[in-house]
Amino acid sequence: MNGADGGTDGGAGGTATEERFGEWVAVRREPEGYVAELVLDRPKAMNAVSTEMARCLGEACAALAADRRVRAVVLSSSHERAFCVGADLKERNSFTDADLARQRPYARAAYTGVLELPMPTVAAVHGFALGGGFELALSCDLIVADPTAVVGLPEVSVGVIPGGGGTQLLPRRVGAARAAELIFTARRVEAVEARELGLVDHLAAEGEDRAEALALARRIAANSPVGLRAAKRALRTGWGMDLRAGLEVEDAAWRSVAFSGDRAEGVAAFNEKRAPRWPGE
C-alpha cells in the first residue's frame, strides 16, 4: 500500500491517493477519481474482521457512497495469501454474550455498506475468502478470482450461521438447493469449481485478480455515472420481485436517467463520433 503522497499504480498515469479508515481499511482513488479501491489491510490476521475493522469498513463505505465522482469500486486485499478469512474468532473467543450483541451493529453496517454501494462493485479474490470474507465478496456485483482462491460459508461448523448476507446472497447467485448444500455442509470450494458453480464470475491468472478487477472497473467507469447507478438500482431493487413489478422498477430507473445531462451527452457523443464527456448529472 502506498501513502496519500505516493501511490503510482492507479489507472493510466498520475498519482493515486489513499485515505485511511482506522488501521486496517484504506480507500485508494485513481488519479481521475472514477475508480476507487477499497482495501482490506489487516495482513497479520489475514484480514479477519474484528469489531474495529468492521466499524472502519462501514465508515469507508459511507464515504465512498457519498462521493459522486466514483463510478466503480474494487474490493481487494493487501494480504498475499488471503482475501479475508471472516470474523475474528480470536477476538470473539473472549466475548461475553453482551459483547457479541454490541458488535453486531458494526458488522451489519460493514456488510450492508458494501452491499448498498450505489456504484458497480468488483471483488478481487485470491487465497481464502471464507465466512464473512466470502460474504463481503458476495456483496459485490462481480467477483474476479485467481486460481488460489478458496471460498465458502463454513459458519455452521462453529455453531452459527452466515450473518453478513450469505443466506440471502448465495441463493441469488447459485440457486436455493445448491446454496443450501454449500451452507449446510460448510464445504470449501476451490477456484475452478467455484467458477463452474457460479460462485465467482471471472478466473484471472494467478496473482492477477486485482489487476483484472481494476481493468474491469475501468471499463465500467468509462460509461455514464448516472446510467451505472440507475442500472444497479434497477438490478438490485428488482431482486425477488415478479416480472411485472420488476418492470415497474426498471421504468422508474429509466425515467430517472432519460432526461439527464448524461443522456443528452451520450446521444450527442454518439452522433458526433467522439468519446462522451459525462456531466454526471
UniProtKB/TrEMBL annotation:
Keyword Cell membrane appears in the UniProt entry: no
Enzyme class, spelled out: lyase
EC number(s) given by UniProt: 4.2.1.17
GO BP terms, alphabetized: fatty acid beta-oxidation
GO terms of molecular function: enoyl-CoA hydratase activity
UniProt KW keywords: Lipid metabolism, Lyase
SUPFAM superfamilies associated with the record: ClpP/crotonase (SSF52096)
TM regions (residue ranges): none
Substrates-to-products reaction catalysed: a (3S)-3-hydroxyacyl-CoA = a (2E)-enoyl-CoA + H2O; a 4-saturated-(3S)-3-hydroxyacyl-CoA = a (3E)-enoyl-CoA + H2O
Repeat keyword on record: no
Protein family membership: Belongs to the enoyl-CoA hydratase/isomerase family.
Name of the protein in question: enoyl-CoA hydratase
Species whose genome carries this gene: Streptomyces taklimakanensis
